[in-house]
Amino acid sequence: MKKLMYAVVLVAVMFAAYFAGGHEMRGTTSAAGPRRVLYYVDPMHPAYKSDKPGIAPDCGMQLEPVYADGSGAGATGTDASMPAGTVNIDSSRQQLAGVRTAAAERVSGTRTVRILGKVAADDRLVYRINAGVEGWIRATYDASVGSHVKKDEKLATYYSPDFVAQINGYLVATDRLTVSVKESGRGVEAAAARLRNLGMSDLQIKELGETRQLPENIYLVSPADGFIVARNLSPGLRFERGAEFYRIADLSHVWIMADVFENEARYYRPGMVATITAPQLGKTVRARVSEVLPQFDPATRTLKVRLEAENPGFALRPDMFVDVDLPVNLPSGVSIPVDALIDSGRTRRVFVDRGNGYFEPRQVETGVRFEDRVVIARGLKEGERVVVSGTFLVDSESRLKTVAAGMRPQPEPAAAPSGDAPAHEMPMMKQANMPVGSTVDHKCGMKIDSAKSIAEGNTLDYRGTTYYFCSRSCKDAFSKQPEHYLGSQAGAQ
After folding, report:
1. Using CA atoms, how far apart are residues 489 and 493, in angstroms rounded to an integer?
2. In the 8-state DSSP scheme, what is residue 251?
3. What is the mean predicted confidence (pLDDT) over 68-96?
4. How many other CB atoms are there within 10 angstroms of residue 489's CB atom?
5. Concatenated DSSP letters for 137-194?
6. What is the pLDDT of the chain when averaged over all its residues?
7. Inter-residue contact 447 to 469 (CB < 8 Å)
8. SS3 of 204, please?
């Protein structure tokens, strides 16, 4: 009987050892072989550790293992030798997220660079019709803003008493019966110049010499073929000397203004020929770089490149956006696909593949962009591989890890509550250089987005102050013991 009992106990022990070992193997094996779990951590609150798997008591997230080989959530083994923000993503998660990498390649020679341009009227072909006298507008013709007018086309008529004396002087000068032919010629030119300075057109001066009659009105005519871009008169308007009546632009020849970064300006030289494409018109024209203007825009950190182009059919209109393709001779340098670059406006960074699933964030300085690539002036070496697809996943995990590693608990308040609080229930945590719109969960110390807390309803008003939380469980725990989490601050409110 005793032997039978011993046999039953032995079999039970063997089965227990088998299942325990099998469970450990299933939970810790990988392609590299068995791995020993050191402990489990809350991925959002690395300060919380547990000897067993399960659910985090504060935010309800699944605990993640940390292995003896230094891998896993919050690991300090291999990660400790990596720069801040480096993340480890296993091959299965990379495959699910579509993470792909590409090598940085050295490029040189001629490449086509595409920049955005804006059409502008050539300042040298913009004509302003101003008043040389005081008077009243009598009538206007059909020409309005946007209308195309011809040279010497009548635009409006006006009356001014200042013309009477000058017109009489012109008529006297053209009367050859009173003076010699030589003197008459000099007098006619001088009288015509005075009328022209007051605003009378050459067409009307010629007509005046033929009819030899005092006109009732002076009329405005277009000085050139072009489009009316400004019109500042109406019938009955009284105007002062110097008032602008019309502004007319000849668009047969236009400028294209393009913004380039200051470190790229050296690639663009006068005389370079570019192709201008207007996508909305499906048309291309040739343009030539005339000048890199010296004005610098401190807001966008750009300089302006001016190109000139003939405009047959007036296809290009002022303020129209176009694509400018320029062949540029690039010096030898390292380039990567544009998709690999994360540009926040103030900084630019890429994620470098360090092998074994590790991706390191690295700030870089960029040069000129061409086709679907960008030159890296500093921060990357030829042959290094960077993430070109799935960058959002890698960047998100890097930010979460940086936030978690950067949080530090505040010192315990002088009047600490009785009893020992769990490690994951620190009173309050602060984060240096916290961005606008973020705050701290006063229950678990996690840095959170206040707007997201409001959207999810995880806010609580206590003694006139609104507090934000990462989850409903943290909000409920805080509402039960607010003084416990606020410490001495609660009494001061």
Report:
1. 7
2. T
3. 68
4. 15
5. EEEE-S--TT-EE-TT-EEEEEE-THHHHHHHHHHHHT-TTTS-HHHHHHHHHHHHHH
6. 77
7. no
8. helix
The reported pLDDT for the residue numbered 248 is 95
DSSP string of 229-242, one letter each residue: EEE---TT-EE-TT
Q: What is the pLDDT of residue 69?
A: 54
Which range, 100-114, 143-157, 427-441, has the best average confidence (pLDDT)? 143-157
In this structure, is the dihedral angle defined by the CA atoms of residues 61, 62, 65 and 71, taken in order, positive or negative?
Answer: negative
- The band of 148, judged by pLDDT with boundaries at 50, 70 and 90, is very high
Residue 211 CA, distance from chain mean position? 65
Tokens 């309800």, residue located: 60
What's the rounded Cα separation, in Å, for the pair 336 and 386? 8
pLDDT tens per residue, range 207-259: 888 888 888 888 899 999 999 999 999 999 999 999 999 999 999 999 999 99
What angle do the packed helices 202-211 and 162-173 form, to 10 degrees?
A: 60
**395 within 8 A of 389, measured Cβ to Cβ:** no
- Residue 282 region by backbone torsions, left for phi larger than 0, else alpha for psi between -120 and 50, else beta: left
Residue that has been written with the tokens 């955005």 in this structure: 116
Distance, in Å, from the CA atom of 50 to the CA atom of 61, rounded to the nearest integer, reads: 13
448 bridge partner residues: 439
- The reported pTM is 0.53
Q: 367 and 375 in contact (C-beta within 8 Å)?
A: yes
Amino acid identity, position 220: L
Classify residue 403 by burial, with Cβ atoms within 10 Å: 0-12, 13-18, 19+.
middle
CA 468 vs CA 42, 452, 453: distances in Å: 20, 9, 6
230 Cβ neighbours under 8 A, 6+ residues apart: 145, 244, 246, 247
Determine how many CB atoms are found less than 10 A away from the CB of residue 88.
Answer: 20
Confidence of residue 202 (pLDDT cuts 50, 70, 90): confident
What phi, psi does 486 have (nearest 5°)? -90, -20
Instruction: Please provide the distance, in angstroms rounded to a whole number, between the alpha carbons at the two ends of the chain.
Output: 75
How would residue 79 be classed by pLDDT, with cut points 50, 70 and 90? Answer: low
